[in-house]
Amino acid sequence: MSTEVKEQRKPMVYKLYDSPMKPEEIEEKSFETIDAEAGTHRFSQREWIIVRRMIHTTADFSLMDDVEFSPDALDAGVNALLNGRPIYVDSNMIRSGISPARLKTACHSYSRDDVVCHVADEDVARDAKKAGLPRSLFGVRKAGRKKILDGGIAVFGNAPVAVLELNRMIAEENIKPALVIAMPVGFVHVTECKDELVSLDVPFIALRGRRGGSTIAVSVVHSLCSLTKERAVRQ
């Protein structure tokens, strides 16, 4: 292969070397692209901050069709974050993904310990094995017993069974989360758990249908932190 051909196939990263972009510049350009390609949409300005971040996380504009907010969702989530309320998550992947630094922009008292996941707890594993049911169900039950869910934010990206159990606790035990972020992914119990949740009297942000996942759920929490920071500045 000639030297001339090799020059023509120079690795593309050299373009970045020649015109470097900081991470925040890349993010800003990404959001500009999303805004331009999304065009007119049905979301309020504050809701769009959430949805745009979800699109940024997935590069999937079709999510816009399936995101649903209760009328009180954003105010409820922002108020909970401003007051440093605990956050229950259905997987340690989500717990690892939520940035303590982001949480501190919403409320300075937040620490890693305020993001709670019980699915790997020994007592939860023992109860699940005995009952022949998923650990996620007993994890959310434990969070209810420890008063984490009342007034807290519940975040689901993986476990539809945990959403089903929370739905039962809301209906039968008067558990009252400040906000439920319902974005479990999968094929069994997934659409049903979300459909049931949105019928209950509880603030929610849900991604209807089968799609979801940890990264999308984390993106919603981080977007809510941005909204909370903006409100704190205005005050």
Please explain how this structure is put together.
It is built from twelve helices and six strands. It is of the alpha/beta class. A six-stranded mixed β-sheet has the order 1-6-5-4-2-3, sandwiched between helices. Helix 3 (23-38) crosses helix 4 (45-58) and helix 9 packs parallel to helix 10. The longest helix has 21 residues, at 214-234. The chain is globular, with a radius of gyration of 20 Å.
What count of helical segments does DSSP give? Answer: 12
The CA-CA distance between the termini, in Å, is 65 Å
User: How would you describe the oligomerization state of the chains in this entry?
Assistant: single chain
Helical residue percent band: 55-70%
- The counted number of beta strands is 6
Point out poorly predicted stretches: none
Q: What number is the mean pLDDT?
A: 94
Strand content: 5-15%
Indicate the structural class: alpha/beta
**Biggest sheet features:** 6 strands, mixed
Overall geometric form: globular
